[in-house]
Every structure is written in structure tokens, then in C-alpha cells.
Amino acid sequence: MVDIPSTPADGNMSVLLVPEIADPSAPTVTELTATGVVDISCYLTSDGYTPGLDEQVVNDERLCSTQVFEQPGRHTRTLEVIYIDNTNSPNAETDNKAKDTLVPGSTHNLVVRTGIPFDTPYEADQEVDVTPIKAGQYRKQPPEANSVLKIAQKLFITGPVVTGVVDASGS
Questions:
Q1: Where are the alpha helices (DSSP H) in the chain?
Q2: How do residues 106-120 score in pLDDT, each as one tens digit?
Q3: Is the pLDDT of residue 168 over 80?
Q4: Is residue 162 predicted with pLDDT exceeding 70?
Q5: Do 130 and 110 touch, CB atoms closer than 8 A?
């Protein structure tokens, strides 16, 4: 077998909540580092970023064939996050940014960058996914032994998910 390198997932993912992005296919460094941007990378649990995709099937039946062919139909993207809950910590005002920002009904652009250490500054030509979202209700998770308190939350996807490249013009 040929030795094919791989990129570890641990520590190599950045997740931001960005208030405004003019062009989701080309977010600028300025937009991704502006006042109001909240980095929730370290609030999310290791299993706390869960995108999903459901693709429907269009049957393509032909009189001349005994086989039913298929075409892609509509699709639905979903997203749920699980993050730590520091509601009752002495520093809750500064240590609960994920919960305080993802207020139910609030809208954001969720920007995800993978394959680069999370604390590396955003630069031009890095690939990111931009997802417009509306935050759902908080769902406190049952407590577990040897664990931390957590909140799960559905993030409703309100527009197209765009994979784009950070634009150098807005640096």
C-alpha cells in the first residue's frame, strides 16, 4: 500500500459565528476578524459539530427497461452543535460565548475552516464553508459521570451552504 498522508481532525478546525458576509463565496479576512465575530471552536465538544445531508431520489423509469434508473433530487442540509455550558461558572459572562451568541432565533453565518490549526489566523486563499443559520432552542444534555455540562442546539440552515476561498482584497 502506498503511504498516503492524512490530516488529523483534532485541533485542525476553526468554527466562527460571523454577523455579516457580503459575498459568502469570498469572505474577506476583515469580515472574519471583525468586531462581533465569535470563535466557538473551543466551546464545541469533540462530537459537537454535526452537519448532515439528505438527498432525495428522482426515479427515472423507462418503458424499454426493467431497471429503474435514478437522478438526484432535492436535498436538505442539517446542522446540530453541542457545546459546553458554563452558565453557573463564576466567569459566565466571558466563559459562555457560544450560548450567549447562539440565542434562539438569532441569525449568523457559521464559517468553518478545516485542515489548519484552529488558532492560525485567517489568511487569503484559505478554503472555508459558509452556512447561513438561525439558532434553534437550547437543549440541555443529561449530565454524565466524568463529563462537563453541555447544550445541544439545532442550527436551521436558511440559505445555500457555500464553499469559498478567503478573499485577499478585504485583508
A1: 29-32, 92-95, 97-101
A2: 999 999 999 999 999
A3: no
A4: yes
A5: yes
Model confidence at 1: pLDDT above 70: no
Which phi and psi (to 5°) does residue 58 adopt?
-100, 115
What percent helix, strand, coil does the chain show, rounded to 5? Answer: 10, 45, 45
- Say yes or no to pLDDT of 148 above 80: yes
Nearest to 132 by CA among 33, 13, 20: 20
Let me know: does 131 contact 157? Beta carbons within 8 Å.
yes
**Residue partners of 6: CB distance under 8 A and separation at least 6:** none
| 138: its cell numbers | 437550547
Q: Which three cell numbers stand for residue 13?
A: 478546525
Nearest to 39 by CA among 89, 133, 103, 111: 111
Please tell me the predicted confidence (pLDDT) of residue 121. 96
The model's pTM = 0.89
DSSP tag of 98 = H
pLDDT in the model for residue 99:
95
Give the largest Cα separation in the chain, rounded. Answer: 72
Residue type, 132: P
55 contacts 77 by C-beta, under 8 angstroms: no
